[in-house]
Amino acid sequence: MMAKKRGTTDLSLMVAVDKPSGMTSHDVVNRVRRIFGERRVGHTGTLDPLASGVLPVCIGPATRLDHYLVGHDKSYVVSIVFGAATDTDDAEGAVIRTGEVPDEVFDPFFASAFVASLVGKSKQLPPVYSAIKVGGKKACDEARRGRIIDLTPRDIKVSSAELLGIWGADGTEPPRWDVAFTVSAGTYIRSLARDMGNTLGCPAHVGALRRTAVGAIALDECVSLETLEDIGLAAALDPLRALGCRFAYLDDAAAARVRNGNPLPARALSLCERRSSDAASELCACTAGVRESCKPPEDDEIVALVYDNRVIALYAYRADRDQFASRCVFPIGVIRGYCDL
Predict the structure, then answer these.
(1) What domain range is 33 assigned to?
(2) Are residues 168 and 134 in the same domain?
(3) Where is the tRNA pseudouridylate synthase B C-terminal domain (predicted)?
(4) CATH code at 56?
(5) Separation between Cα atoms, residue 339 and residue 341, nearest integer Å
(6) Among 38, 6, 68, which residue's Cα sits nearest to residue 233?
(7) Deepest of 34, 157, 219, 312, by most Cβ within 10 A of its Cβ?
(8) CA atoms of 56 and 281, how far apart (whole Å)
(9) Which of 10, 27, 48, 340 is catalytic?
(10) Based on the structure, what is the number of domains in the chain?
Protein backbone atom coordinates (compact mmCIF):
# COMPACT_ATOMS: atom_id res chain seq x y z
CA MET A 1 0.00 0.00 0.00
CA MET A 2 2.07 2.90 -1.29
CA ALA A 3 0.81 6.44 -1.69
CA LYS A 4 3.14 9.01 -3.20
CA LYS A 5 1.29 12.16 -2.18
CA ARG A 6 1.13 13.39 1.39
CA GLY A 7 -2.07 14.97 2.65
CA THR A 8 -5.06 14.17 4.76
CA THR A 9 -7.05 10.98 4.45
CA ASP A 10 -9.97 9.33 6.23
CA LEU A 11 -7.54 7.00 8.00
CA SER A 12 -7.39 6.96 11.80
CA LEU A 13 -5.37 4.15 13.37
CA MET A 14 -2.41 3.02 15.43
CA VAL A 15 0.43 0.75 14.38
CA ALA A 16 3.55 -0.44 16.17
CA VAL A 17 6.80 -0.32 14.24
CA ASP A 18 9.90 -2.35 15.05
CA LYS A 19 12.27 0.57 14.59
CA PRO A 20 15.62 -0.46 13.16
CA SER A 21 18.85 0.79 14.68
CA GLY A 22 20.32 3.73 12.82
CA MET A 23 17.05 5.56 12.15
CA THR A 24 15.65 8.41 14.21
CA SER A 25 12.07 8.19 15.43
CA HIS A 26 11.30 11.11 13.11
CA ASP A 27 12.69 9.11 10.18
CA VAL A 28 10.12 6.42 11.00
CA VAL A 29 7.33 9.00 11.11
CA ASN A 30 8.30 10.31 7.67
CA ARG A 31 8.34 6.79 6.26
CA VAL A 32 4.87 6.08 7.68
CA ARG A 33 3.60 9.33 6.16
CA ARG A 34 4.71 8.14 2.75
CA ILE A 35 3.23 4.67 3.22
CA PHE A 36 -0.25 5.90 4.15
CA GLY A 37 -0.28 9.17 2.23
CA GLU A 38 -1.22 10.92 5.46
CA ARG A 39 0.72 13.87 6.87
CA ARG A 40 -0.82 13.61 10.36
CA VAL A 41 1.51 11.01 11.85
CA GLY A 42 3.26 10.98 15.21
CA HIS A 43 5.09 8.54 17.47
CA THR A 44 4.32 8.16 21.17
CA GLY A 45 7.81 7.86 22.64
CA THR A 46 11.20 8.70 21.17
CA LEU A 47 13.82 6.02 20.63
CA ASP A 48 17.45 7.08 20.19
CA PRO A 49 18.93 6.38 16.74
CA LEU A 50 21.09 3.62 18.27
CA ALA A 51 18.04 1.87 19.73
CA SER A 52 15.69 -0.52 18.00
CA GLY A 53 12.33 -2.00 18.92
CA VAL A 54 8.80 -0.99 19.85
CA LEU A 55 7.71 2.40 18.52
CA PRO A 56 3.94 3.01 18.59
CA VAL A 57 2.81 5.34 15.81
CA CYS A 58 -0.53 7.14 15.46
CA ILE A 59 -1.96 8.04 12.04
CA GLY A 60 -4.59 10.62 11.10
CA PRO A 61 -6.89 11.94 13.86
CA ALA A 62 -5.57 9.11 16.06
CA THR A 63 -2.55 11.36 16.70
CA ARG A 64 -4.77 13.03 19.31
CA LEU A 65 -4.36 9.87 21.39
CA ASP A 66 -0.73 10.82 22.03
CA HIS A 67 -1.55 12.78 25.19
CA TYR A 68 -3.23 9.71 26.68
CA LEU A 69 -0.51 7.20 25.76
CA VAL A 70 2.21 8.62 28.00
CA GLY A 71 3.10 7.29 31.41
CA HIS A 72 3.26 3.58 30.55
CA ASP A 73 6.14 1.43 31.78
CA LYS A 74 8.68 0.43 29.14
CA SER A 75 10.84 -2.70 28.84
CA TYR A 76 14.30 -2.94 27.31
CA VAL A 77 17.18 -5.29 26.71
CA VAL A 78 20.45 -3.39 26.91
CA SER A 79 24.14 -4.18 26.47
CA ILE A 80 26.16 -2.21 29.02
CA VAL A 81 29.82 -1.88 28.06
CA PHE A 82 32.34 -1.28 30.84
CA GLY A 83 35.71 0.44 30.65
CA ALA A 84 34.78 3.53 28.63
CA ALA A 85 32.45 6.51 29.03
CA THR A 86 31.15 8.57 26.13
CA ASP A 87 29.74 12.09 25.89
CA THR A 88 26.31 10.71 24.90
CA ASP A 89 26.42 7.74 27.31
CA ASP A 90 26.05 5.36 24.36
CA ALA A 91 28.20 3.88 21.61
CA GLU A 92 27.40 6.71 19.20
CA GLY A 93 29.25 9.27 21.30
CA ALA A 94 32.94 10.14 21.58
CA VAL A 95 34.94 8.39 24.30
CA ILE A 96 35.71 10.91 27.03
CA ARG A 97 37.12 8.62 29.71
CA THR A 98 38.49 5.09 30.10
CA GLY A 99 39.23 3.05 33.19
CA GLU A 100 40.07 -0.35 34.58
CA VAL A 101 37.20 -2.81 34.93
CA PRO A 102 37.04 -4.45 38.39
CA ASP A 103 37.21 -8.24 38.50
CA GLU A 104 33.80 -8.57 40.16
CA VAL A 105 32.15 -7.43 36.92
CA PHE A 106 32.85 -10.94 35.61
CA ASP A 107 31.50 -12.67 38.74
CA PRO A 108 27.98 -13.92 37.87
CA PHE A 109 26.84 -13.97 41.50
CA PHE A 110 28.02 -10.41 42.13
CA ALA A 111 26.64 -9.19 38.80
CA SER A 112 23.21 -10.76 39.35
CA ALA A 113 22.94 -9.32 42.84
CA PHE A 114 24.09 -5.89 41.67
CA VAL A 115 21.53 -5.77 38.87
CA ALA A 116 18.75 -6.99 41.17
CA SER A 117 19.62 -4.20 43.63
CA LEU A 118 18.61 -1.59 41.04
CA VAL A 119 14.92 -2.44 41.46
CA GLY A 120 13.02 0.33 43.22
CA LYS A 121 12.55 4.08 43.20
CA SER A 122 15.43 6.54 42.85
CA LYS A 123 16.52 9.87 41.44
CA GLN A 124 18.15 9.98 38.00
CA LEU A 125 20.07 12.72 36.22
CA PRO A 126 19.13 12.62 32.51
CA PRO A 127 21.92 12.47 29.91
CA VAL A 128 23.35 15.75 28.64
CA TYR A 129 22.32 14.61 25.15
CA SER A 130 18.58 14.24 25.74
CA ALA A 131 15.41 15.75 24.30
CA ILE A 132 14.50 17.37 27.61
CA LYS A 133 13.68 21.06 27.20
CA VAL A 134 14.85 23.74 29.61
CA GLY A 135 13.71 27.27 28.90
CA GLY A 136 12.35 26.12 25.55
CA LYS A 137 15.71 24.70 24.44
CA LYS A 138 16.51 21.00 23.98
CA ALA A 139 19.44 19.80 26.06
CA CYS A 140 20.84 17.78 23.14
CA ASP A 141 20.75 20.76 20.75
CA GLU A 142 22.55 22.95 23.24
CA ALA A 143 25.12 20.22 23.95
CA ARG A 144 25.94 20.02 20.23
CA ARG A 145 26.58 23.76 20.31
CA GLY A 146 28.96 23.28 23.21
CA ARG A 147 26.57 24.68 25.80
CA ILE A 148 25.68 22.31 28.62
CA ILE A 149 22.28 22.82 30.27
CA ASP A 150 21.93 22.03 33.96
CA LEU A 151 19.35 19.27 34.21
CA THR A 152 17.40 18.38 37.32
CA PRO A 153 17.37 14.81 38.69
CA ARG A 154 14.03 13.11 38.13
CA ASP A 155 12.09 10.46 40.01
CA ILE A 156 12.25 7.07 38.31
CA LYS A 157 11.30 3.52 39.14
CA VAL A 158 12.91 0.28 38.03
CA SER A 159 10.19 -2.37 38.27
CA SER A 160 12.36 -5.31 37.24
CA ALA A 161 16.02 -5.90 36.39
CA GLU A 162 17.52 -9.20 35.27
CA LEU A 163 21.06 -10.06 34.25
CA LEU A 164 20.96 -11.99 30.97
CA GLY A 165 24.66 -12.56 30.37
CA ILE A 166 28.26 -11.52 30.99
CA TRP A 167 30.70 -11.10 28.12
CA GLY A 168 34.34 -10.18 27.66
CA ALA A 169 35.94 -12.17 30.43
CA ASP A 170 38.30 -13.83 27.92
CA GLY A 171 39.49 -10.48 26.60
CA THR A 172 38.21 -11.06 23.05
CA GLU A 173 35.65 -8.24 23.38
CA PRO A 174 35.00 -5.33 25.75
CA PRO A 175 33.50 -6.29 29.14
CA ARG A 176 29.72 -6.22 28.88
CA TRP A 177 26.54 -7.10 30.71
CA ASP A 178 23.27 -7.82 28.91
CA VAL A 179 20.39 -6.74 31.13
CA ALA A 180 16.59 -6.74 30.82
CA PHE A 181 14.86 -3.76 32.48
CA THR A 182 11.29 -2.66 32.97
CA VAL A 183 11.21 0.99 34.00
CA SER A 184 8.85 3.90 34.50
CA ALA A 185 8.18 6.43 31.79
CA GLY A 186 10.93 9.05 31.58
CA THR A 187 13.71 6.69 32.68
CA TYR A 188 16.87 6.89 30.58
CA ILE A 189 18.63 3.57 30.10
CA ARG A 190 21.77 5.48 29.12
CA SER A 191 21.76 7.12 32.53
CA LEU A 192 21.25 3.75 34.22
CA ALA A 193 24.33 2.41 32.42
CA ARG A 194 26.38 5.50 33.29
CA ASP A 195 25.39 5.34 36.95
CA MET A 196 26.04 1.60 37.16
CA GLY A 197 29.57 2.22 35.99
CA ASN A 198 30.05 5.03 38.50
CA THR A 199 28.86 2.79 41.33
CA LEU A 200 31.23 0.02 40.23
CA GLY A 201 34.13 2.46 39.98
CA CYS A 202 34.61 2.28 36.23
CA PRO A 203 33.16 4.15 33.25
CA ALA A 204 30.33 2.53 31.28
CA HIS A 205 28.01 3.22 28.38
CA VAL A 206 25.19 1.62 26.37
CA GLY A 207 26.54 -0.52 23.55
CA ALA A 208 23.17 -1.64 22.16
CA LEU A 209 19.55 -1.10 23.16
CA ARG A 210 16.29 -2.75 22.15
CA ARG A 211 12.88 -1.71 23.46
CA THR A 212 10.77 -4.82 23.94
CA ALA A 213 7.51 -3.32 25.23
CA VAL A 214 5.62 -0.07 25.75
CA GLY A 215 2.82 -0.71 28.20
CA ALA A 216 0.83 -3.64 26.80
CA ILE A 217 2.36 -3.35 23.31
CA ALA A 218 5.14 -5.91 22.84
CA LEU A 219 7.60 -6.70 20.08
CA ASP A 220 5.47 -9.53 18.68
CA GLU A 221 2.83 -6.93 17.75
CA CYS A 222 5.29 -4.77 15.83
CA VAL A 223 6.00 -4.83 12.12
CA SER A 224 9.02 -3.72 10.14
CA LEU A 225 8.65 -0.70 7.89
CA GLU A 226 8.92 -3.02 4.89
CA THR A 227 6.07 -5.19 6.20
CA LEU A 228 4.00 -2.11 6.98
CA GLU A 229 4.38 -0.98 3.39
CA ASP A 230 3.15 -4.38 2.22
CA ILE A 231 0.17 -4.88 4.53
CA GLY A 232 -0.92 -1.32 5.37
CA LEU A 233 -4.17 -1.26 7.36
CA ALA A 234 -3.79 -4.92 8.32
CA ALA A 235 -1.10 -3.78 10.78
CA ALA A 236 -3.58 -1.70 12.80
CA LEU A 237 -3.47 -2.16 16.57
CA ASP A 238 -6.41 -1.99 18.93
CA PRO A 239 -6.02 1.40 20.67
CA LEU A 240 -7.79 0.01 23.74
CA ARG A 241 -4.75 -2.19 24.42
CA ALA A 242 -2.39 0.74 24.05
CA LEU A 243 -4.49 3.01 26.26
CA GLY A 244 -4.93 0.42 29.00
CA CYS A 245 -8.13 2.06 30.23
CA ARG A 246 -11.64 0.77 30.79
CA PHE A 247 -14.17 1.18 28.00
CA ALA A 248 -17.86 1.05 27.15
CA TYR A 249 -19.87 0.08 24.08
CA LEU A 250 -22.39 2.64 22.82
CA ASP A 251 -25.76 2.26 21.14
CA ASP A 252 -26.85 4.54 18.30
CA ALA A 253 -28.42 7.17 20.54
CA ALA A 254 -25.45 7.40 22.90
CA ALA A 255 -23.02 7.52 19.97
CA ALA A 256 -24.89 10.47 18.50
CA ARG A 257 -24.62 12.35 21.80
CA VAL A 258 -20.92 11.53 22.09
CA ARG A 259 -20.14 12.68 18.55
CA ASN A 260 -21.54 16.07 19.57
CA GLY A 261 -19.41 16.09 22.73
CA ASN A 262 -22.40 15.92 25.07
CA PRO A 263 -21.91 14.55 28.61
CA LEU A 264 -23.32 11.17 29.56
CA PRO A 265 -24.77 10.22 32.95
CA ALA A 266 -22.72 7.54 34.68
CA ARG A 267 -25.68 5.18 34.74
CA ALA A 268 -25.75 5.24 30.91
CA LEU A 269 -22.41 3.46 30.62
CA SER A 270 -21.59 -0.12 31.50
CA LEU A 271 -17.83 -0.12 31.91
CA CYS A 272 -15.84 -3.09 30.63
CA GLU A 273 -12.29 -4.29 31.08
CA ARG A 274 -10.03 -6.86 29.50
CA ARG A 275 -9.53 -10.30 30.97
CA SER A 276 -5.96 -10.32 29.66
CA SER A 277 -3.39 -7.78 28.45
CA ASP A 278 -1.60 -10.42 26.39
CA ALA A 279 -2.31 -9.99 22.67
CA ALA A 280 -1.92 -13.72 22.05
CA SER A 281 -4.72 -14.41 24.52
CA GLU A 282 -7.09 -12.05 22.71
CA LEU A 283 -6.97 -13.54 19.24
CA CYS A 284 -10.33 -15.30 19.54
CA ALA A 285 -12.95 -13.49 17.51
CA CYS A 286 -15.48 -13.24 20.32
CA THR A 287 -16.20 -11.20 23.43
CA ALA A 288 -14.64 -13.76 25.75
CA GLY A 289 -11.70 -11.40 26.29
CA VAL A 290 -13.96 -8.75 27.83
CA ARG A 291 -15.83 -8.69 31.12
CA GLU A 292 -18.05 -6.16 32.81
CA SER A 293 -16.15 -4.16 35.41
CA CYS A 294 -17.55 -4.21 38.92
CA LYS A 295 -15.45 -1.28 40.10
CA PRO A 296 -17.22 2.11 40.14
CA PRO A 297 -15.60 4.93 38.15
CA GLU A 298 -13.03 7.13 39.86
CA ASP A 299 -12.93 10.90 39.68
CA ASP A 300 -11.21 12.06 36.46
CA GLU A 301 -10.81 8.48 35.22
CA ILE A 302 -10.44 8.28 31.46
CA VAL A 303 -12.61 5.74 29.63
CA ALA A 304 -12.76 4.90 25.93
CA LEU A 305 -16.11 4.81 24.13
CA VAL A 306 -16.59 2.27 21.34
CA TYR A 307 -19.14 2.34 18.53
CA ASP A 308 -19.19 0.24 15.37
CA ASN A 309 -15.85 -1.30 16.43
CA ARG A 310 -14.10 2.07 16.52
CA VAL A 311 -12.96 4.20 19.43
CA ILE A 312 -15.00 7.36 18.88
CA ALA A 313 -14.13 9.30 22.06
CA LEU A 314 -12.32 9.48 25.36
CA TYR A 315 -14.42 10.70 28.27
CA ALA A 316 -13.51 11.52 31.87
CA TYR A 317 -15.67 10.83 34.92
CA ARG A 318 -16.82 13.85 36.95
CA ALA A 319 -17.59 12.61 40.44
CA ASP A 320 -19.22 15.90 41.49
CA ARG A 321 -21.81 15.51 38.72
CA ASP A 322 -21.85 11.71 38.46
CA GLN A 323 -21.36 11.95 34.73
CA PHE A 324 -18.79 11.43 32.00
CA ALA A 325 -17.57 14.52 30.12
CA SER A 326 -15.85 14.75 26.77
CA ARG A 327 -12.06 14.93 26.63
CA CYS A 328 -11.37 13.92 23.04
CA VAL A 329 -13.79 13.06 20.22
CA PHE A 330 -12.80 11.29 17.00
CA PRO A 331 -15.43 12.11 14.33
CA ILE A 332 -14.44 9.15 12.13
CA GLY A 333 -13.30 6.93 15.00
CA VAL A 334 -10.01 5.12 15.51
CA ILE A 335 -10.16 1.69 13.93
CA ARG A 336 -9.50 -1.34 16.10
CA GLY A 337 -7.80 -3.47 13.47
CA TYR A 338 -8.94 -7.07 13.39
CA CYS A 339 -10.01 -7.07 17.02
CA ASP A 340 -13.61 -8.22 17.31
CA LEU A 341 -14.01 -7.53 21.01
Answers:
(1) 13-72+215-235
(2) yes
(3) 190-231
(4) 3.30.2350.10
(5) 6
(6) 38
(7) 312
(8) 20
(9) 48
(10) 3
